[in-house]
Fold these 3 entries.
Entry 1:
Amino acid sequence: MDLKEYLRNRQGKIEATLKDLLPAKDTYPEILHEAMGYSVFAGGKRLRPILCLAACEAVKGSLEEALPVACALEIIHTYSLIHDDLPAMDNDVLRRGKPTNHIVFGEANAILAGDALLTLAFQIIGEAGLKSAHKYETYLEIIKDISIAVGSLGMIGGQVVDILSENQEIDLATLKYIHQSKTGALIKTSLKSGALLGAGSKEQVRQLVLYGEYLGLAFQITDDLLDVLGNAEKLGKPVGSDNKNQKSTYPNLFGIEKTKELAEEAVNNAVRALQDFGSEGDVLRSLAEYLLIREN
Amino acid sequence: MDLKEYLRNRQGKIEATLKDLLPAKDTYPEILHEAMGYSVFAGGKRLRPILCLAACEAVKGSLEEALPVACALEIIHTYSLIHDDLPAMDNDVLRRGKPTNHIVFGEANAILAGDALLTLAFQIIGEAGLKSAHKYETYLEIIKDISIAVGSLGMIGGQVVDILSENQEIDLATLKYIHQSKTGALIKTSLKSGALLGAGSKEQVRQLVLYGEYLGLAFQITDDLLDVLGNAEKLGKPVGSDNKNQKSTYPNLFGIEKTKELAEEAVNNAVRALQDFGSEGDVLRSLAEYLLIREN
C-alpha cells in the first residue's frame, strides 16, 4: 500500500469535516472563531483522527460514521496545544512554523479559544451520537472514555507533572507518566473510539488499545529524538526547545543510540499487538513503521 | 415554604455529591486536584445545580437522578470563574472572599484546573448517562445542549465580548448579548437539563427555559446593582471591581432606580412563565423573588 497517498486521502476527508464542524470565521464574536480556526487549520498531521478512522476500519466499521468523533479528537489535541504554548506554560512563540495562538490573538483569546474547542469537541460527539439511533450507548461510552483520557488523570495530569518537572532531574517512572498521560492517553483513546464506533469485539478493542499504548510510546520517544536531531524547519519550532526548559527526555536519560533502540522496540510491540488482524490491520502496521522513519 | 431551609437542604445534597464526584485532593498530581477542589468548595451559592434539581422536580422527576448533571453544571460554572479571574482576563485576586485560584496555585495550574473541571463535567454526564439505560438519548441531548450553552456561541462568546468591551462604551444590544451569553446561557441550560432529566413535556421544557431566560436576566441586573450598592464583605470581592475595569453595566446605562425596575420586571416575567405549573412550581417562583431581595 502507498501510505503517503493514504494519509493524503484521510487528511483531505478530515480537513473537509473539520471545516463543516467549526463555526465560520465571521461568526460573532469573530476574533474567537478566527482564533479557533487559526490553530485547527495550522497544518497538523491529523495523526489522532487518522488513527481513529483506521481503528474503525480495522474492525470493518464505516469510515464516514467515525469522522465526527475523529475530528473531535483533533480539536481536543488542538486545544491542548494552544494552552500548552501559553506564556504561563511552555511560553512558545512558534508552532508548526507559525506564531502561536496567543501571539496572534492575545492571551485571553487564546485561553478562551482553547476552552471553546474543548467544549466544541463534546458538542460534536453528542450531536453525532444523536444522529445514530442504534448507538447511543456507544457514544456515551466514547464521551466517558475520551474525557477520562484528557482529564486530570490523563492528558492534563501529564501537563501538570511536565511543568512541575522543568529544571528538575526526574526518574524514568515520572518521564513515563508524563508521556503516557500527556501524549499517550489521547492516542490510546483515539484508537479505542474508532474501535468502539466500528463495533469491534472486546478482544479487538483490547488489541487496538494495546497497539495505541505502544504507538504512543514510540511517538513520544521519536519526538524527543527529533528535538535533538531534527532541524527547526522540519519541526516548525526551535530545535532544543525542550532542552531550553531543561525538560527530561529519553535522549537525556538514555543517550541517543539506546533511545533509537527503545523507539524501534515500541514500534515492534505495536505491530505485534495487531497479530490477530489480517490485511485490515495493514494501515495501522504501516503507520507504526512510518513513525520510526519520519524526518530522520 | 421556607426557602432558606430548602436551599440549605439542596446545598447539602449538592456538596455531598460534588465530594463524591471530584477526585480526592491527594490524588496524583496533587496540586492539580487541590486546585480543582479549592475552587469547587469555595462556598458558592450552588444556584445552577439548585435550578437544575428544581426544574427536574417541577416536572415531577427524581431529584436523585438529576444530581450528577446538576453538579456537572456547578463544575462548569467553577471552571469559568477560575478562567475569568486569570491575569489575562479580569485579573481578580479575590473571589468569594478568598484568594483566586491562580493566586494560590499559580497561573499554569489555574488554567489546567479549569480545563480539568470542564472535562470532568462531561465525564460525569457521560457516566451518569451510562447508568440509566432507558435515557441514553436524553443524556446525549443534555451534552449537546450544555456544550452549546457554554461554548463559543454561548458562555465563552459572552466572555470574549465582555473583555472586548472593557473601557468601551457599549450599547444595550451588546450588554444584553454579554449577559445572555456569559451568565444567561448556563442558567437556561441548567433548567432545561433538569426538565429533560425529569422527562418533562415539550411545553413544560419550553416554559422552564423561558423562566430561565428571565431569571438569568434578573440575576445579572441584580449582580450589577450589588456591585454598585453592595459591600465588599457581602460580595467577597472589591466593590466596584466591574467599574474598575470600566465595564458597562445596567446602572451605568440606566441609573439605579430604572435598573431596580428592570430587575423587578424580569422577576415578574420569570414567575409568569410558570403559570401552568401548580404547587410543584413554587420553589422556582420563590427562587425568582428571593433573587430580587438578596443582600439589598
Entry 2:
Amino acid sequence: MAPIGAALWRSLRAHQVYGANTNVGKTVVSTLLCKALAERGSVGFLKPVSTGSLEEADDRHVERFAAGPNVLTKCLYQFDEPVSPHIAARSKLKTIPADTHILSSIHRTLSSWSTNGVKNALVETAGGVHSPGPNANSQADLYRPLRLPVVLVADSRLGGISSSISAYESLLMRGYDIHSVLLFEDEYYQNHEYLQSYFAKKAIPLLALPKPPPRPEGKVAADAEARDLEAMKKYYDSVAAQADIGSLLDGMEKKSHDRIAELESMATRAHSAIWYPFTQHQGMKPEDITVIESAYGDYFQTLDRDTKQDAAPVLKPTFDGSASWWTQGLGHGNPELALTAAHAAGKYGHVMFAGAVHEPALNLAELLLKSLGNERLSKVFYTDNGSTGMEVAVKMALRAACVRYGWQLSQSEVKILGLKGSYHGDTIGVMDCSEPSTFNQKVEWYRGRGHWFDFPTVGMKNGSWRIDVPDELSQELGGGEEFGSLDEIFDLEKRSKSAAGQRYSAYIKDTLEELVYKKGVKFGALIMEPVLLGAGGMLFADPLFQFSLANIVRSNPNLFGSSPSTPTSESKTNWSGLPIVFDEVFTGLYRLGRRTSASFLGIDADISVHAKLLTGGLIPLAVTLASTDIFDSFASSEKSDALLHGHSYTAHAVGCQVAVNSVQEMMNMEQRGDWDAFKTSWSERVLSANPHGAVWSQWSAGLVQDLSHAESVERVFAVGSVFSVTLRDQAGQGGYTSTAAKGLQQRLTLGEPTDPAPFNVHSRVLGNVLYLMASMTSKPEELSRVEGLLRDALL
Amino acid sequence: MAPIGAALWRSLRAHQVYGANTNVGKTVVSTLLCKALAERGSVGFLKPVSTGSLEEADDRHVERFAAGPNVLTKCLYQFDEPVSPHIAARSKLKTIPADTHILSSIHRTLSSWSTNGVKNALVETAGGVHSPGPNANSQADLYRPLRLPVVLVADSRLGGISSSISAYESLLMRGYDIHSVLLFEDEYYQNHEYLQSYFAKKAIPLLALPKPPPRPEGKVAADAEARDLEAMKKYYDSVAAQADIGSLLDGMEKKSHDRIAELESMATRAHSAIWYPFTQHQGMKPEDITVIESAYGDYFQTLDRDTKQDAAPVLKPTFDGSASWWTQGLGHGNPELALTAAHAAGKYGHVMFAGAVHEPALNLAELLLKSLGNERLSKVFYTDNGSTGMEVAVKMALRAACVRYGWQLSQSEVKILGLKGSYHGDTIGVMDCSEPSTFNQKVEWYRGRGHWFDFPTVGMKNGSWRIDVPDELSQELGGGEEFGSLDEIFDLEKRSKSAAGQRYSAYIKDTLEELVYKKGVKFGALIMEPVLLGAGGMLFADPLFQFSLANIVRSNPNLFGSSPSTPTSESKTNWSGLPIVFDEVFTGLYRLGRRTSASFLGIDADISVHAKLLTGGLIPLAVTLASTDIFDSFASSEKSDALLHGHSYTAHAVGCQVAVNSVQEMMNMEQRGDWDAFKTSWSERVLSANPHGAVWSQWSAGLVQDLSHAESVERVFAVGSVFSVTLRDQAGQGGYTSTAAKGLQQRLTLGEPTDPAPFNVHSRVLGNVLYLMASMTSKPEELSRVEGLLRDALL
C-alpha cells in the first residue's frame, strides 16, 4: 500500500460520517450539517462510495437541499442498487478500485479542497460501520488509515440503543476518535435520552434532532414527489434555525483545533515531563522529538513540522524502520490483535498465576513447546520482558550448574561464558552477563562476570559475502574467507569439517582449558544470541563460531566441573558441560525469517528466551523455556530452593492471548507462503541447492549487493526482516559512540517530500551502523520504496 | 453483589440467545432450536425479561410452536410495551428487580432444570446485545457474570452485516464465547454469504435459515391470525426437517463438552508445562492448581473439583483475596478497561518511544506529576514492572550520589540504606537492595549491598493498637507503646517531639555515624516502602521510624559525603544527604486508601516508583518518577553518561492509556466519595479529630478489633484495601518458611459450600501471615461475607 497520511489539515476540518446502521438518516444529518457549515465558509461533501438509485444518491440529496455557492459535493464511486457496496461493485465493475486507490482519492480530494479554501468537509460512509466496501472489507477497516474524526449518526428506532453503542465500540477499537453523535428524536423509544447520558460519560456531545418527514417509498407520482421535496425543505429550514447545531459545530471546531494544538504542544511537554530511555538529554531540543499521532500498518502518522502552511497536511506517514524497537510483527493498529486483547481483558482482566492456571497462559506454553522444534524444552516460565526473561534464565542456569557440580555459594563466583558485543537487557543482573562496554561501564553496580570470546563476523563487501576475523585472532582463526552465498556460510555440517572449522574448535578448547585449569574460572552457563547480536551493534556472527562453541562446551562435560550425575553421552535432553542459554528475545519468532534463530545453528538450547515479537508487537510479555533437567535442579523439600521469581502480572491473560494469536498467525503466514516472493528473490540470486532452507530476507538481495559497492559503505547484510549497513567512519572509530551513520539517518528522516505520496523513514543507529527492520506483514512494494530512499542516499 | 457462579453444568447445556439487533428473529430461532433440542431430551426456554404485548410474549410463542412434554418455558419479568426493558420497567414497576436478583433467578432456574434432568436450555435476551435491561444497564454487561456461551442471531436485513459484526465485537470484548451464529437467508442482500465466510475465519459455524412467513402487524382479524398460525407451524415443520440444524446442535454439544473437558484437563497439563513463580514444584500435584475459567468483579470462576455430580455446577465463585498478587483495582473483566485497551491497540499498537512521544504516555506522565502531590518530582521514566522500575530508581540514585560526592567507580562500592524485610523485586540488581533472606539467599549472584535497620512495627493485639519494638532494640528505642487509634500513630508531628521520637532519631544518627565514620561505608540511596513492607511479610512499619530516618538523612547532608554542590537548606526540590527512593509499587495509588503512601509520612521522595494498581489491574506497566536534580546528574556531553536503560515496550500505548483511565477513575472514586461508607465506619470507632485525614480500611474496624482477641492470633491490622493477620506459630517460628497460616488458608479455600450462594476465598500466605486484599471497587456487602468466613474460622 502506498503510504497514506492521516487526513488532517489546519485550514480544513474534515469529519467522517458513520451510521450506527443503514437508514438511520446519515444523509439527512449530513445535509443539515452542510447547510449549517456553509454559513461558516465553504464546505465539501464527499461520498466515496454510494449505493442506491441515482435519484436518491446521497450527494444529489445534499446538492438539492444544501445547495449554495459554498457547498461542493463529490461522489467517487456510484452504484445504483441499494445493496452493500461489495455486491454492487461485484455486479457493476470489471475492475473494482483497490482500497488504497479509494483512500488516495479521498485524501487527494480533501487535500485539493484544503488548498482551495474549503473550511469543512464531511466524508459520508455507506450503510453501517462494518458494511463492506467495494472490496468486501469493512468500511471501519477500509477508512482507518485516514483516521478522520467521526460524526456518528445513531439509530433512533427500536433496538437503536444497542446498535448505536456497538457501532461506537467497533469504531473505538479501531482507534477512531468520535467527535459527536447525532440522532433523531423518537418520543416513544427515547433512545436519544439514554444515549445522551451514555455519551455524556464519554465526554461526547450528542444532539437529538427533530424527526424528518417520512419519505415516500418506491416510485411515486410527480406531485407526491414535489410535496415531499417541499416538506424536506421546510424540515431543513426549521431544524437549521435551531441554535444547538451551532453549538455542536462550535464544539467540533474546538475539538479539531485542540487536536492540532495538542499535537503542536506535545514535543515541548514531552521534553519537560519525560525522561527518555537510552537518551542523553543534554542538548536535546523539543524539535528532536518525533510526535506520533497514531500508527497503522508499517507507518506512524507523525507531526510534519516542515510545512507550516494552513492548507498543507499536518501529518506525514513515517515508515517505522526500527519496527518500534524490534517489536513490531503484525502491523500497528491491527484490529484482530485489538479485539483479542479486549476479549482477554473482558474475560479475565489479570488473574493470579502462582498456583493457578488460565487458558491463555496454558495454550501459549503448549503452543511454544510444540512449535519451537526443540525437544529439550518442556517447561515455560513467564515474565514481562526480555531482560527479566534473561534474569530468570541466568538464575536457572547458575543453579543447575551449581547443583550438578556441587558448588557452594561461599566458593568463588560462578561466571558466564559468552561472546563479546552480546547484550541481554538493562537490569543489572543481566548487564553483568556482558563484557564491559559503553552500555554498562558507567552503571555504578555493574561488574561483568564472565569471559567473552571475540568472534568472526559475516557481511557483504563489494558484492561478496565475507567472513572477517578480528585482527587479534587472525593467527588462531585464519584470515577470513569469501563465500558465494549466505547459504554456504550456513552450511555448518560442511564447514565444521573444514580447516577453518578445526581452527575454531581448537582455539575455543585451548582458551577454555586455559581459563578453567590455569585461571580457575568456574563457568555456570553459555549464553548466546544466535546469529545476530542486536544491541551490541547488529553483529552478524559467523554461525560456525557459535556452532563450534556450543559443541565444544557440550562434548567436554568434564571441563567445567565433575559430578556423579554428569549425564552419559546418550542423553538427548539433559544438559552437558554447561547449560546453554539462547537469548532469542530479538532474533526469535520470525525476526530472522524463521521460527527460531537456533534453527540456523542446528543447536537445541537447554534454556531459551523469547519476547518482543511474541505478542506481534502489542504489549510486553516474555517466556523462558527450559528443559526438565534444568527444572529438576530446583526440586527440593525446601520451599526456599524453588525459583523464587515472579512479577505481579506474570502470565497476564491479555498478553498470553495476544501471543497465542500472534504466534499462530505468523505460523499461518509461513505455512500459507506469504513470504514466498521474498524467498524467491533470494534463492534465485544465491542459487541455493536447497531453496526451502535457503537464507532469505524481506530486504532485496539486489539492494544488499548494490549498496555493498558504495563508497561510504563498509559492509551490508540482511537476514529475515533485518537489514543493516555499516558505514565507514572517517575517524576510523566504529562502535556505539560513532556518529558516522547520523547523516544517513537524517537523509531517511527527510524522506521524499516531493513524492506524489510523500513519506519518510524513522530509523535507529548503533554508532556507525544503521539498521532497518520490517514487520512480518510488510509488503514488497512498501519495502522497495524504502530501498529506493537508501539507494538515493548511498549510491 | 452476591457471588454468582458462571452458569455451567455437566448435564445441562445452557446457551444465551443474543440478537444482533431487535426484530432479527431471536424468538423464531429459539423456537426452532427448542423443537430440535426437544428431540434430544428435555429442553428449557427462559426469557428473563420480556417486552411486547402478552399475546406476543416470546415464551408464549415458544410454548405455542414448540409445545411438547419435553419443553419447559419460563419468563421472569414480563412487560407489555414493545419498548426497551428499562423504559417498561420504569413505567410498570414500583421496585425494579436488582440486576443481581435477575442473575440469581436465572442461575436458580437453570440449576433446578439441571437437577431435574433438563438437557438443554436457551436463555433469550431482549432486543440487541446492548439493549438496556430493567436497570438501564446493557444486557451484555448485565448477564456477563453468567458468561453463558452465546448463540448470536445475526441480522439478515440491509445493514445487517454491519450490525451483526459490531454486536459480535461487543460480546467478544466482554469476554463472551460465541458458539454459533444463525440468521435468515435473504437472496437480495446475501448477508448470510458474507457472514458465513467472516465467521468461518473465527471458527464459528453459521447456519442460514429459510425466511419465516411475514407476521401480521398490529391488531388482526381472527381468521388472519389463524392463517398466520398455520403458516408459522408449516414453517417450523419444514425447517425442522432440515438436516443442518442437527449438525449445528452437534457442534454446539461438542463445544460444551470440550469446554468442560478442557477445564478438567487444565491442571494436569499446567502441571506438566508450566514452571510456576515462587513455587516449589516438588510434591506439587495437579490438584493443587486452581483452574480459573474466567473472572468478573472481585471473583474468579474456578473449577469446582469437589462436586462430581453431573447436575451440580461445574464452576464456583472464588473471591480474589490476593487482588491477583496485589494488582487488582477496578475489577476483573472491566469492560471500560477492555475498551480502553482496544482503542489504544487500534490507534497505535506499540509505537517507538525513544526519541518520540505519543498522547497516552505524555498524558500519563503529566497526570502523575500533577496528581501525586510531590513537588520534587518532575520527570517520568517508563518500564514494565515494579522490579525494573526499581532497577531504574537504583541506577538514578547511585549516579546522583556518585556525581555529587565525586565518587569514582574504582572506589569501594556504593551501598543502599534501607529497612530489614524490604523487598523491591526479583531482578538481581534490586534483590541486592535487600538484606539476605529466604528470598535471595539461594540466588547464586545475590549479594546484599547495604545496611538495613530493624524497626518497630504496628498492629492490634487484644483490642489495642500497639507499637512493638524488636527485643534487640528495646534498650535504644524503648519498650513499645499502646495507642487509642491508628490516627494517633500517624500523628507524626506530635510523636516526633515525644521521648520515643527523640530516641528514634538519636539511635538512627548514632548508627549512621558509626557506619560512615567508623566503618567507612559509602551510601548512595535511602530506599523505603512507606508504611507497609509487602513481600517481606506484610510488615506494618511504625511510620515514625520511617519519618525519622528520612529526616535524619536529609538534615545531615555532610554525613554521607562532601561536595561543593551540596544544596543549601533553602532548596525545596534538591536532594539532601541521600536521594530518597520510595518504592510505592505495592503501597501507592490507593492500595492503602490514599493516592500515595508517602502522604502518610508527609515526606516527599526524590524518586518514586509506581506499578501494579497503575493499570487498574490489567497489564504490566511501571513508572519511575524523579526530581530535576536527580535527572541533571545524567546530563553530559557524553551519550554514555545518559541513563542507558529502556525495554522494547517502554511506554507501550495500551498500558499508558489503560493507566490514564485507571488512575483517573480511582481519583474520581475518591472525589465522588465512593469509599465514604468504609471511612465512616473507621472514623466513628477511632473518634478521629480529623475525619478527612483519618486512617481507614475497606475491611471493617470491628473485624480487626474482634480478631485481635482470638486465641490463635498474634496480631491484626488493616489499612486501605489490605488486611493482615499474624498467627501464633506453635514452633515459635515466624517468617516466610512458617506454615502456621496454612490452616486458615485451607479454611478459606473450603469456603461456605452450604451457603445458598456458595463461594470460597483465594488467599496468599507469607509464612505465619495471611493477608487479604480488596479491589478499589469492592463493595462492603461483598467484603462482609469474606469477613464472616474469617470470623467463623478464627473466633
Entry 3:
Amino acid sequence: MNTSHSAPIGIFDSGIGGLTVAKAVMKALPGEDIIYFGDTARVPYGIKSEETVRMYALQITRFLLEKGVKMILIACNTVSASAKEEIIQAAGDVPVLDVITAGTQAAIGFDNHSRIGVIGTLATVNSKAYERSIHEIEPQADVIQQACPLLVPLAEEGWVDNEIAKQTLSIYLKPFESKKIDSLILGCTHYPLFKEVIPEVLQDSDTIIIDSADSIALTSKQRLSELDLLNQNGGKFQCFVSDRPQRFQELAERFLGRDLTDVSVIGLN
Amino acid sequence: MNTSHSAPIGIFDSGIGGLTVAKAVMKALPGEDIIYFGDTARVPYGIKSEETVRMYALQITRFLLEKGVKMILIACNTVSASAKEEIIQAAGDVPVLDVITAGTQAAIGFDNHSRIGVIGTLATVNSKAYERSIHEIEPQADVIQQACPLLVPLAEEGWVDNEIAKQTLSIYLKPFESKKIDSLILGCTHYPLFKEVIPEVLQDSDTIIIDSADSIALTSKQRLSELDLLNQNGGKFQCFVSDRPQRFQELAERFLGRDLTDVSVIGLN
C-alpha cells in the first residue's frame, strides 16, 4: 500500500466518459493529484465479452499501480460489473472503489428507496450488477433496469437536449412510467450529460436522480480521510490514453468541462 | 498468388457491418467459399487514429493470407480510407478490392453524375478518401460529404425506420437538400439498413442511392472472371471474430439476413 499523502489517485475508464468522475473528484478533492487512464484504443467495453473486459481492466490496474497510486477508482460501469473482484485482488492493499457500489450506496442512502430504477449500457444491464449490489444491502428493494445503448453516441454527438435526445429518452424511460420509482441511478459515466433533460422526460419530480460520479467522489473523500491519506497540496491532473482519437479534445472538454493539457498516449498489453 | 479456383475469398471489417458485403457477395457469387473476419474486440475503428487502424488492418490481412485466400475485400470504409495502400503492398499478388473504390466507380458509372453526396462515419468523412477517389476519375465532380455518427448505433439498436431514425436522417441529410445531388454513396457498411428510409427523407426520387456492398460484390465477380479464378462448386461461409460480443448472433442475423453457424473466436496480435 502506498501510504504517502502525496501519492496520486488513479481513475480509469474504457474511454473518456470517466472524465465525469475525474471532474467530480477534482471538485470534492481539489488538493489531490489525479492520474486518469482512458482506454480510447479499445473503447467501448460495453459490447465486449466479460473475459476481454477483465483482461483489459487488469492491464490498466497494473499500469496505475506502477504509477504508485494510493487509491483506484473504477469509473467504468462495465468494468465495475465484470472485473471488480479481480481488480481488488490485483491491487492488494491499495483501496479500490467502483461506480456501481458508490451509486448503489447513494440510492439506498435515501429513506424509503425501495423502488430503484437503473439505466446503463447493455453490458451493465445484462450483468445485473446493480441489481446484485442493491440487493446485498436492501434485499427487499425493487430494481427496474433499462438498457439505453443510444445514449452514449448521442452524448458524444452533443445531442443531449434536442428533440431526438428527448424522444430517445422517452422510449428508454417508458418502463419507469407505470412503476413509480423513488430514485434513478445513471449507470453509465456518459449519462450525467442528460441530467437536465431526464427529469423533464420522466415527468416525476419526486424521483431522485443518482449521479454515480458524484457518489464515488464523495466515497473516495471519506475513505481517504479514514485512512489519513488526504492531500491538500496537490491538484495536478495527468491523463493517459491508449489512442488519441479524432475529436478527442472536443469530447474531453465536453466531459471534463475544461481543457485537457497533460495527455500522453501509451499502449498497454 | 493463390491461383486455385477453390481458394476462398477473404472479407474483413472492423466488426459485423461488413456482413452486408458478405451477403452481397454470396448473392453475386453463390459458388464461392468465403472467409469473413470481424474485429469485434476492437470495433469501432471509426474513432481510432490512422496508425492504429493500419496496424489492426495489417494483422487481419496477414491472417487472411495465412488462410490462403485468392482475393481480399476490404469491407470497412475506415480501413479503405486509411490503410488500403498498406494492405495492397502486404497482399503481394493477391488482388485487394475496397468499398470506397467500388462505391466511387459505381457512382461515376452513371451518366451526368457530377454532383455526388457521400455519407459515412466521422473518420471516413474526415479522411476525404471518397473525395480523392472520385476526383481521381472525375476531377470536375462536386463532392458533398456528411458525417453521420449516430447511424451505426441506430442500426445496431434496430431503429432503422422509426421517427428517431427519420429525424436523425433529416438532420444529417439537410446539406443535400439545397444542393441537388445526382447520387448518394452509402459510405458505411451499416447504412444499407436505412436504404428504404433514405429516399423518403431525401424527398428527391431522382437521386440514385449507391450501396457499396453491391458495388464491391459486382467488382469482385468481374475481377475473378478476368483472372479465371471463379469457383462454382463452393459456397461455404466461415466467420472469424476477435471477440463474441453480447447480442452478436442477433446483430449478425440482422446484417446477414440469415443465421450464422460457423463462427470461431480468434485473437490477433
